[in-house]
Amino acid sequence: MAKVSVYNIEGNVVGDMELLDDIFAAPVKENLVHACVVNYLAAQRQGTQKAKTRSEVSGGGRKPWRQKGTGHARQGSTRAPQWTGGGVVFAPVPRDYSFKVNKKERRAAIKSVLTQKLIEEKLVVVDEFKMDEIKTKRFAEIMGNLDATDALLVLNEKDETVVMSARNYPTVKTAGTNTINVYDILKYDKFVVTKDAVNTIQEVYA
Question: Residue 61 has what pLDDT?
Fold first, then answer.
């Protein structure tokens, strides 16, 4: 089992903690990590783009000229794609870009990125993260003490005081143990997690 130091919010070491090898020393599977990142980004797409096909644009009900004898190419409608004001060929329509990643693959990807954070020494365990009042300045001081000014902060239970204090801090995002994802773990430099949250993660992903 890997052993990591546990810090308080002042940045001092107050103990250590053993981590399960099944989660924090798992094989790093880059193909699954990539799939989860692509899946996350695809799910963020609105998919609301829309253009009209020739069947949807107004007008063009009458054949513009007779079939033969005019010297022009034959035409059936003034709303065909080659006409100004005509419909779009293969026009985009609203759609859902998301796709499914299997549960086992998603769990393996989470373990991969957590393992990578530990290897790179970018995993910071805090004994507890408590604040007396909503104050971004104090929150910034704490993150500075932990040397984690660009971080994903994972709490075991939602603490409104911490979440509201972090809201105006642009390089830190707060999350719960049930909302962590591969994309966010990779996006931020440090992975700051409370001791209770580590225990929950280990219970869920073991």
Answer: 87
